[in-house]
């Protein structure tokens, strides 16, 4: 899950940087940047939570 969310988050950050240079409106790149950071943070938190909670075998 970390790899998927991290990849999408990095793509959002790259898109934000490109849009920040190309368009005059600042709101769109800032939202994409925040979304990317939150996706990466969420992926890391998910990885940490999965590691902490052991899997039950049935």
Describe the model.
With 58 residues, this protein is mainly alpha-helical. The chain has helices at residues 2-22, 27-52. α1 (2-22) runs antiparallel to α2. The longest helix has 26 residues, at 27-52. It is rod-shaped.
Index terms:
58 residues, mainly alpha, 81% helix
Structural class of the helices, strands and pairings?
A: mainly alpha
Ends distance = 23 Å
Can you give the mean pLDDT?
87
- Report the sheet with the most strands, covering strand number, pairing sense and barrel closure: none
The helix content, as a percent range, equals over 70%
Uncertain runs are none
Order of helices and strands: HH
Which word captures the global form? rod-shaped
Percent of residues in beta strands: under 5%
Number of helices: 2
**Strand tally, please?**
0
Q: In angstroms, what is the radius of gyration?
A: 15 Å
Protein topology:
Layout: H1 2-22, H2 27-52
Helix pairs in contact: 1-2
TL;DR?
81% of the residues lie in helices and 0% in strands.
